UniProtKB/TrEMBL annotation, chains A, B:
CDD domains: DRE_TIM_LeuA3 (cd07941). SUPFAM superfamilies: 2-isopropylmalate synthase LeuA, allosteric (dimerisation) domain (SSF110921), Aldolase (SSF51569). Residues 6-272 form the Pyruvate carboxyltransferase domain. One of its GO terms (biological process) is L-leucine biosynthetic process. It catalyses: pyruvate + acetyl-CoA + H2O = (3R)-citramalate + CoA + H(+). Belongs to the alpha-IPM synthase/homocitrate synthase family. This is Citramalate synthase. It comes from the Bacteria.
Amino acid sequence: MRDDGFHVFDTTLRDGAQREGINLRVSDKLAIAKLLDDFGVGFIEGGWPGANPKDTEFFQRASQELSLKHARLTAFGATRRAGVRAADDPMVAALRDSGAPVVTLVAKSDGRHVERALRTTLDENLAMIADTVSYLREHGQRVFVDCEHFFDGYRYDPSYALDVVRTAAGAGADVVVLCDTNGGMLPDDVFRTVTEVREATGARLGMHAQDDTGCAVANTLAAVEAGATHVQCTANGYGERVGNADLFAVAGALTLKRGMDVLPPGCLEEMTRVSHAVAEIVNLAPDTHRPYVGVSAFAHKAGLHASAIKVDPDLYQHTDPELVGNTMRMLVSDMAGRASIELKAEELGLDLAGDRALSGRVVERVKSLELSGYSFEAADASLELLLREEMGEPVRYFETESWRVITERRPRDGAPLFGAYESLTEATVKLRVKGERVIATAEGNGPVNALDRALRSSMEGVYTALAGLELVDYKVRILEGSSGTNAITRTLVTFSDGTGEWTTVGVGPNVVDASWVALEQAFDYGLLRQGYPRDRRA
Amino acid sequence: MRDDGFHVFDTTLRDGAQREGINLRVSDKLAIAKLLDDFGVGFIEGGWPGANPKDTEFFQRASQELSLKHARLTAFGATRRAGVRAADDPMVAALRDSGAPVVTLVAKSDGRHVERALRTTLDENLAMIADTVSYLREHGQRVFVDCEHFFDGYRYDPSYALDVVRTAAGAGADVVVLCDTNGGMLPDDVFRTVTEVREATGARLGMHAQDDTGCAVANTLAAVEAGATHVQCTANGYGERVGNADLFAVAGALTLKRGMDVLPPGCLEEMTRVSHAVAEIVNLAPDTHRPYVGVSAFAHKAGLHASAIKVDPDLYQHTDPELVGNTMRMLVSDMAGRASIELKAEELGLDLAGDRALSGRVVERVKSLELSGYSFEAADASLELLLREEMGEPVRYFETESWRVITERRPRDGAPLFGAYESLTEATVKLRVKGERVIATAEGNGPVNALDRALRSSMEGVYTALAGLELVDYKVRILEGSSGTNAITRTLVTFSDGTGEWTTVGVGPNVVDASWVALEQAFDYGLLRQGYPRDRRA
């Protein structure tokens, strides 16, 4: 366990799960809790036991299945109902019986919400807080109090908002958390309010920020500057509406920019892995542009600066990416020079052996391909195939003789506006694989799908690992040239083999052609990844 | 033109285009500039004329094609090379000749970058700044100076960094912009530094923030609090690595939270539309969780609070979504919609005659179509066809019986990596036009091109104005949540008739199908525009 002096409190499993589109199973929540613990947070808010059966089950299973190295599990719930003793409120009993050593109680702190949403009196609300905190403390639990709508409430009636803080602290809450529930605050508002509340009450304060102004991270840091010693965050900033303060950006700033030792040793480097793994579990694509953890967070469009970056990367990055488990990437574009190609090869694990003529050839080829519409920024696998070919180790597992794709809408009555059509695509490929001529035909729901299937079926007898490869993304971009459909098309395809993904790029005047060029490379690269020996004479 | 006292300066077209994966055509840049002007920014940085042919062309075309209501166009470029007079530097000449009334010059302000990247002396760097600013001022241009790596430089050697600011201002730069180029600053760093620089130099200061700590918006606001009167932002925060300060979040905070009148009247409400339209043009899915403009930004997982929200929504939102052109959404029982459909119909010039049942039907149909993958935000022509159909005036000039598209790669020797293929597409369509059955076949360089040509040739005898219609853009997006080629495809096609453009949308599991759905509508809408009488019995 960390020192209790500063709390990194995660609420991904409770407030994060409020994000539109997230729907967690109990097993998802257990897996995420494990990851958050790897990252070294001090508290993991698991949900609201008693409010829904899934959260109740989570706490039951967590107490048996979850072995936490760093974090303590926290149950979320509300103060007792108006007019009932805490001891008689079944919702409070569910918190008491959750098995969680810590309870976070949400309390109203804006008089308007007390009267219009809770429909009780200001005094009864204070009594509800005092009674519920005392009751849970008597039963051996530690209590934090989340003051909902605190900042709006403080602006509306500071005296009542302060009464709420004093009541919670006086009843035995360890931390009183000021929540910007509607997310409308800016950092200077937060700094001023937290300072005033700290001076007026002497309570230990925490901060819970929503990101509706795009300032949740800054608001959290402003609260810490003003003396808060407890921050509530969510992985990747997931949360209701725009989201919550991003755990990783907050922990990164406190650790790397403010020198505060808020995570256990060795945990900061888990940041990128944990961020991406949580995204996978909640079934959202990892945000490529997330601070610290995004795949683009340390990506440089090289050009002019590549040689300077090679000499001194720290001149061009705000922190060392390895500290947060991320890596610097050079984006190879038509602005790239030899230096960026060399850095890129290193990143891909290819040894150019200081061959300047070789890297010069690659630069020329990249430039000429980009002129014709290619873009390697998002297609590392294509760049690697190009590098290998220039190194004299071309990767080719098959040779294409011809292919044909037919898409047909069957005769039917006129469809309505936006009507779904009955159509079918069929692709035939003719290839040479290990010296044998093969022909295969497959149906699909579009040209690329049908070609992908035909390609697979033509080779899966020879390369059985093909069954584990899956096309997971497909992008089409029309490039300037002339106009409309009479233009150059760029296609990016992304494949996965379960352990990693790779992207290839194809270009051509015909979208089907461009797709084929990218598909060929994707299969070659995938077969190389699976460890098949390269076979020049396919 | 706005008062010059505060500058909202947009650099989407220059710094925003540095985002990994964004690759703008000149026509894209012109379209985005138009949208930014609709939003009322004061300055639009269009690119670096002279550094690449595309940006040079942008400035040429902009001076002829772009009519701006609010914004002034700004050219970006560097100070002159070391050891050459500004008057003799062809890159400076390109800025002078760009036709832009304002030039933003980037200057080094961190001594380490001067010596290691620029490889010149500290004094020569100052001379380069003074000489270039003076030269452009003498030629009648207004000059802003971007001090690259300013915050790191100021930390390293405050005295030199201040010399840079004084030199730029002394030579006639209107604004000296402090850039957090590596993006590692936090708001209190920025506030302190901007305050000190303002006090030490008296120069008019601007702020350019990168988002590597997740604080770009807050850093920009902190600079304004410290006295900066010029903010550089990008639409949706697009930019290198993690991105730049988000124009919409910054303008939203200054206007709604600080009461600063930084946009012309009526522009703030354009925010959501402009944000989404820019995303469509750069071919990125609009970020659903973006402050102010995301579709989730005012979405409430209703539950407990639904009735309270109904009584008093302001208790649950930090600002009125209508002020930024967004809408509140209840995720359980959606109540929004009818009002925006009515507004849209008005915008399209259609009279719904206050028919609430009709607008209700349209809302339901739009919702159900959006559920299946449609998006009408960028496809007004499709929405108009839908509205007209619900109004009992369907627009149908022909009926489709069937079509077939064949794409074939002819037998040839194995092509090299990235080799261009010899392929051909042929489309056959069978239609009924004005009661006659017609069959036509055409070749093209891709499925959509071939279908477009076949459709034209089948009907041009009847509708001669078809010859003046041209397909000018075609976009394909694979929708989130689905995987690979086995996914839902959304296609947008844009046609022009020389006097205007219209965009339609099609959706389907098959890209060719989705394209056909969009093409059919594009032809119908185009024929309606040409004034042909609608003919239900085609």
